[in-house]
Recover the amino acids of this structure.
């Protein structure tokens, strides 16, 4: 395939935040062969490269991205027994629906998480309890330095809360993901997915110009965990308290910098209410981090990729 490299292409429309400047160069790829070709091009030209997929968990700088942005778009998938093997750019919800048609499910609580299955595996995306790690059989990836292609078993992916091996090792680009599902009937699976999406809409988690939860839920000292548990009447999961709860307690719900706001409905969403810049978002994030650290002694870390 001849790569269609375009120059000076706006990236904001390719992200859910709708923020950021242009890519110096961009190429759309769909499968491993095309990703390899794009990587070879960056090597040949000595260009920096950045991977972008669904664009639902990134903040692009106002000045844009230098080098080549390799955008992994919708790919192909195949279904074999109880497994679904998908190219990295396949849309997660599209796969949940396609699997349901073939009587496979179990992962409907992930319905409505925007973006690709590759992006989901990299960040171990999850919602309402389940995470993608609960379904992954293996992840295929290529090493941009050595060119090696490898299948990683679930254990080798080193998944944990919003973490995988690939997050710590950006030299590996995910090209495909195989998940193992349960036998179900299409009606049940479809209904569960629809209920999940309805619940997300009710909680204002959908269709917002944001990158999802901006910060990861942090581990917290015992006094903060006790405060959370007695206030909310629920157990803190894995020693973590919700970042949104801390942001609200710090008095920052609805706090605004420029057109970036800590959402009134879900304070851990930083929302672009108009023409927010990456600068606005970063400044608001900094205010939140400093205030939460000062008031609760807890360090927040970005979940969204600060490109
Ligand atoms: C409204 C909204 C709701 C959301 N709700 C949730 C939720 O409930 N749970 C949740 O976990 N997340 C949620 N998110 C965040 C986001 O949808 C997930 O993180 C998603 O998995 C990101 O996938 P993506 O394809 O959009 O990745 P992108 O945003 O394109 O990329 C994110 C990062 O992953 C890297 N990356 C992407 N693809 C690959 C690849 N193939 N190989 C290597 N690196 C790669 C990119 O370089 C970047 O660093 C939400 C986001 C929005 C906007």
């Amino acid at each position: 395939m001849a790569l269609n490299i375009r120059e000076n292409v706006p990236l904001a429309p390719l992200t859910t935040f709708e923020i950021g400047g242009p890519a110096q160069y961009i190429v759309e790829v769909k499968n491993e062969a095309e990703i390899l070709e794009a990587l070879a091009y960056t090597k040949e030209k000595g260009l920096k490269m950045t991977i972008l997929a669904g664009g639902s968990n990134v903040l692009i700088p106002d000045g844009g991205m230098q080098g080549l942005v390799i955008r992994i778009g919708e790919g192909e998938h195949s279904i074999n027994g109880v497994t679904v093997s998908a190219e990295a750019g396949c849309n997660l919800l599209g796969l949940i629906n396609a699997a349901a048609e073939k009587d496979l499910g179990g992962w409907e609580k992930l319905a409505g998480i925007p973006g690709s299955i590759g992006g989901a595996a990299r960040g171990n995306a999850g919602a309402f309890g389940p995470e993608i790690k609960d379904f992954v059989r293996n992840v295929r990836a290529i090493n941009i330095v050595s060119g090696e292609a490898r299948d990683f078993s679930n254990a080798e992916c080193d998944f944990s809360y919003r973490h995988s091996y690939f997050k710590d090792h950006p030299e590996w680009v995910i090209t495909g993901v195989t998940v193992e599902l349960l036998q179900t009937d299409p009606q049940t699976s479809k209904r569960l997915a629809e209920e999940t999406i309805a619940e997300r809409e009710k909680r204002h988690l959908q269709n917002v110009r944001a990158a999802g939860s901006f910060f990861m839920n942090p581990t917290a000292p015992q006094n903060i965990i006790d405060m959370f548990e007695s206030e909310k009447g629920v157990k803190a999961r894995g020693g973590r308290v919700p970042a949104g709860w801390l942001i609200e307690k710090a008095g920052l719900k609805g706090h605004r910098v420029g057109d970036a706001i800590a959402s009134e409905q879900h304070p851990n969403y930083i929302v672009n209410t108009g023409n927010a810049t990456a600068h606005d978002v970063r400044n608001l994030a900094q205010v939140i981090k400093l205030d939460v650290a000062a008031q609760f002694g807890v360090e927040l870390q970005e979940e969204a990729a600060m490109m």
In short: The domain at 6-72 is CATH 3.30.43.10 (Uridine Diphospho-n-acetylenolpyruvylglucosamine Reductase; domain 2).
